[in-house]
TrEMBL record:
It comes from Brassica carinata (Ethiopian mustard). This is Asparagine synthetase [glutamine-hydrolyzing]. Pathway: Amino-acid biosynthesis; L-asparagine biosynthesis; L-asparagine from L-aspartate (L-Gln route): step 1/1. SUPFAM superfamilies: Adenine nucleotide alpha hydrolases-like, N-terminal nucleophile aminohydrolases (Ntn hydrolases). L-glutamine binds at residue 98. Its EC number is 6.3.5.4. InterPro entries: Asn_synth_AEB, Asn_synthase, Asn_Synthetase, AsnB_N, GATase_2_dom, Ntn_hydrolases_N, Rossmann-like_a/b/a_fold. The record marks 344 as: Important for beta-aspartyl-AMP intermediate formation. GO terms for molecular function: asparagine synthase (glutamine-hydrolyzing) activity; ATP binding. Keywords: Amino-acid biosynthesis, Asparagine biosynthesis, ATP-binding, Glutamine amidotransferase, Ligase, Nucleotide-binding. It holds the Pfam family GATase_7. It comes from the Eukaryota. The active site is at residue 2. ATP binds at residues 232, 268, 342-343.
Length: 586
């Protein structure tokens, strides 16, 4: 992931303004440590901090068309750039960068080209011929982006809040799937409007091979890289499927020819955590070169302030999950890896969170998945993007491929419903799609492992330790005044209060605090889904263990038995290798 910053239509073209833009751009350098670029045209400034993944030698930004009248600063990956280039035969490209197609597509199609891009992106395009500009963000908000307005009439765009929060009178998260155009008077326009967006109940019958094929395509296209890469492997269903498909298809790719056919996998957790055990088992099954990172509760607590600064949220579950990912990303980058594939998005698409067990009917089930996908940019996408980019590491998320989402969200939601009496646990349709007896993708008990939220899977004592630490720093008197100190999104727990105090120190503006979502939640549900079970109102916690009567280690101590099929033997044609262990030490 790169870092972009743009100031458009400001009232100052002095050297001092240019210096200020450079200063703010440097705040994003962690996202792109490989090169810095800036372009100025009158009262417009475009700055870029590059993380070089494709064409490291010549793809520095900003990017231009042939006569340099169109200027683009972009953060993202365009997976179909080679196909798009074929349709631009009359154009001359200055670089081999996948993002180089954007300026030329604009020349051919105007602002209507955005839906042609298959990938993740945030970009600012300046047309110097008439000083018009456009800003766009990818379909579901995998890349982070903010927009702000200055008192002098200027418009600001930044990959992170820290690039603009001090200079804007108001700023907000740029909405995913939208573009902002000066030509249309400076308003937002929704370019991504798939059939599932209106939340009407679809009726396509479940076809396992269609799901399998669509997801394999999503993973394969994300193997486009000119730098070393790996996979995040927690041992849960989603990351294990990503790793399995990558291991099957890596041989023969450009990446394999350049960096070798051995896939590297990475896992993080407290000593003895569920994820470490499961991740190691899957790695041995797939034959990956496995790197296991350990951290202690104190390691995580010591990193909380850095995490909140980088991830720019005070949402409890996001901070809980971001911290181990933040620590792991630093270790991964130290090994020379610049890109990883990750499993975010599956739970939102297939109803994988444990509270979906209580969905009353298929309409409620489907509408909740729609709400969850639309909110991903505030939660898991924000975490995956910013926790990794804090150390110049890029995370790619194949479950959030546009075509795969369309395929999965067109299914009749009856097939996604959780029915234990029929042997259908959460994400049954995905599990069944990859349950191949002849050439198994995963061991059966991994394929049918119960959902663990990342903040739980790294070790249950992680969350318990955070709560204990917060209780030492937030007293009852502080909590009694919480509604007066924090009238917006008032923290209801000491843990939430603790995170809020830190956030407000870094980002004290009202615009900043309202970028963070709030509302009642249990096991990562939306506020609407809390209504599914009256008992949940007594245990409002985003941890999966709050799904009392569903999670195997629920907070109330209840146990739920899930019969698991017998495991398959390992895939014969993938070599077995010993794992490598790297330990985080304080």
């Amino acid at each position: 992931m790169c870092g972009i910053l743009a100031v458009l239509g400001c009232s100052d073209d002095s050297q001092a303004k240019r210096v200020r833009v450079l200063e703010l751009s440097r705040r994003l350098r962690h996202r792109g440590p490989d090169w810095s670029g800036i372009y100025q045209n009158g009262f417009n400034y475009l700055a870029h901090q590059r993380l070089a993944i494709i064409d490291p030698d010549s793809g520095d930004q900003p990017l231009f068309n042939e006569d340099k009248s169109i200027v683009v600063t972009v953060n993202g990956e365009i997976y179909n750039h080679e196909e798009l280039r074929k349709g631009l035969k009359n154009h001359k490209f200055h670089t081999g960068s996948d993002c180089d197609v954007i300026a030329h597509l604009y020349e051919e199609h105007g602002e209507n080209f955005v839906d042609m891009l298959d990938g993740i992106f945030s970009f600012v395009l300046l047309d110097t011929r008439d000083n018009s500009f456009m800003v766009a963000r990818d379909a579901v908000g995998v890349t982070s982006l903010y927009i702000g307005w200055g008192l002098d009439g200027s418009l600001w765009v930044s990959s992170e809040m820290k690039g603009l929060h001090e200079d804007c009178e108001h700023f907000e998260a740029f909405p995913p799937g939208h573009l902002y155009s000066s030509k249309s008077g400076g308003g937002f326009k929704q370019w991504y409007n798939p059939p599932w967006f209106n939340e009407s109940v679809p009726s396509t019958p479940y076809e396992p091979l269609a799901i399998r094929s669509a997801f394999e395509d999503a993973v394969i296209k994300r193997l486009m890289t000119d730098v070393p890469f790996g996979v995040l492997l927690s041992g849960g269903l989603d990351s294990s499927l990503v790793a399995s498909i990558t291991a099957r298809h890596l041989a023969g790719t450009k990446a394999a020819k350049r960096w070798g056919p051995q896939l590297h996998s990475f896992c993080v957790g407290l000593e003895g955590s569920p994820d470490l055990k499961a991740g190691k088992e899957v790695a041995e099954y797939l034959g990956t070169v496995h790197h296991e990172f350990h951290f202690t509760v104190q390691d995580g607590i010591d990193a909380i302030e850095d995490v909140i600064y980088h991830v720019e949220t005070y949402d409890v579950t996001t901070i809980r999950a971001s911290t181990p990912m933040f620590l792991m990303s630093r270790k991964i980058k130290s090994l020379g890896v610049k890109m990883v594939l990750s499993g975010e998005g599956s739970d939102e698409i297939f109803g994988g969170y444990l509270y979906f067990h209580k969905a009353p009917n298929k309409q409620e089930f489907h509408q909740e998945t729609c709400r969850k996908i639309k909110a991903l940019h505030k939660y898991d996408c924000l975490r995956a993007n910013k926790a990794t980019s804090a150390f110049g590491l890029e995370a790619r998320v194949p479950f959030l491929d546009k075509e795969f989402i369309n395929t999965a969200m067109s299914l009749d939601p009856e097939s996604k419903m959780i029915k234990p009496e029929e042997g259908r646990i959460e994400k049954w349709v995905l599990r069944r799609a990859f349950d191949d007896e002849e050439r198994p993708y995963l061991p059966k008990h991994i394929l049918y492992r119960q959902k663990e939220q990342f903040s739980d899977g790294v070790g249950y004592s992680w969350i318990d330790g955070l709560k204990a630490h917060a209780a030492e720093n937030v007293n009852d008197k502080m909590m009694s005044n919480a509604a007066f100190i924090f009238p917006h999104n008032t923290p209801l727990t000491k843990e939430a209060y603790y995170y809020r105090m830190i956030f407000e120190r870094f980002f004290p503006q009202n615009s900043a605090r309202i970028t963070v979502p709030g509302g009642a939640t249990v096991a990562c549900s939306t506020a609407k889904a809390v209504e599914w079970d009256a008992s949940w109102s007594n245990n409002m916690d985003p941890s999966g263990r709050a799904a009392i009567g569903v999670h195997l280690s629920a907070y109330d101590g209840s146990k739920v038995a899930l019969p698991l099929p017998a495991p398959h033997k390992a895939i014969d044609d993938i070599p077995m290798m010993m794992g490598q262990e790297v330990v985080i030490q304080t």
